């Protein structure tokens, strides 16, 4: 019996439990690949944006520096969002009426604002990783459950039919083991994708932290920003 017929026979003879297990594993696979593609595109764009930081610091004023960072939309660029957050914090601290935050010095206020922006970026980049971690850890056991159930059904059929030939036993049991393989096929890409995305996220967050450190020094020094328009 070829493998294709084995899978077909397993689907047809396994009943509702095997079919539901296979559909769950298929859904896990689709979800994990969707997360990996979406987050991979985000990481790719962010790495390209990180390469523009050198141009940011070589711009003549802040407006042009922010234009260097912008590709399409402001919210797509965590580095530009970080720079704007620091600018907003500086102006708000210096030009508003007395608030509670005015008891903080400018350095502490800008540091707090930049940290909040980095936390938002960390949450954005980290979203979806829990899905990959969950799929990577549970998919093998879901597949194993399908295998155990398939073997159980196969042994019941063998017992009812009075079959004792090893060839008659190997076919149904071998088909049931396909579920374990299916679980591993789902889990392995999820685990590899999780590790790759986690490492890439750490790279981007490291760039953001270094950029935030430089921005804090820039905004706290009180250097005049030429031709800087008010934020809308």
Please explain how this structure is put together.
- This protein is mainly alpha-helical and 232 residues long.
- It has a domain at 28-141 and 175-220.
- It has seven helices and no strands.
- The chain has helices at residues 3-50, 53-57, 62-69, 78-95, 106-126, 129-161, 166-220.
- The longest helix is centred in the C-terminal third of the chain and has 55 residues, at 166-220.
- The radius of gyration is 28 Å and the shape is rod-shaped.
- Mean pLDDT is 77; it is low at 1-5 and 224-232.
Strands, helices and their partners?
Elements: H1 3-50, H2 53-57, H3 62-69, H4 78-95, H5 106-126, H6 129-161, H7 166-220
Q: End-to-end distance, in Å?
A: 70 Å
Number of strands: 0
Q: What structural class do helix, strand and pairing data support?
A: mainly alpha
The portion of residues forming beta strands comes to: under 5%
- Report the helical percentage: over 70%
Summarize this entry quickly:
The protein has a domain at 28-141 and 175-220. Helices cover 81% and strands 0% of the residues. The protein has 7 helices and no strands.
Jot down its keywords.
232 residues; mainly alpha; 81% helix; 0% strand
């Amino acid at each position: 019996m070829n493998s294709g017929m084995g899978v077909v026979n397993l689907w047809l003879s396994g009943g509702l439990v095997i079919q539901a297990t296979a559909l769950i594993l298929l859904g896990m696979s689709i979800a994990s690949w969707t997360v990996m593609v979406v987050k991979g595109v985000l990481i790719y764009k962010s790495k390209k944006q990180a390469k523009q930081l050198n141009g940011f610091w070589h711009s003549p004023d802040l407006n042009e520096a922010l234009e260097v960072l912008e590709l399409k939309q402001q919210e797509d660029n965590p580095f530009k969002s970080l720079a704007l957050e620091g600018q907003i914090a500086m102006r708000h601290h210096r030009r508003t009426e007395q608030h509670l935050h005015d008891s903080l010095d400018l350095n502490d206020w800008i540091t707090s604002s930049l940290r909040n922006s980095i936390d938002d970026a960390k949450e954005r980049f980290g979203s979806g990783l829990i899905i990959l971690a969950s799929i990577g850890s549970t998919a093998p056991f879901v597949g194993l459950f399908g295998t155990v159930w398939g073997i159980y059904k196969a042994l019941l059929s063998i017992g009812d039919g009075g079959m004792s030939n090893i060839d008659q036993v190997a076919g149904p049991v071998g088909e049931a083991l396909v579920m374990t393989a299916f679980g591993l096929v789902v889990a392995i890409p999820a685990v590899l994708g999780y590790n790759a995305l986690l490492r890439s996220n750490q790279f981007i967050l490291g760039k953001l932290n270094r950029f935030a450190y430089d921005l804090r020094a820039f905004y706290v020094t009180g250097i005049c920003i030429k031709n800087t328009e008010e934020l809308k």
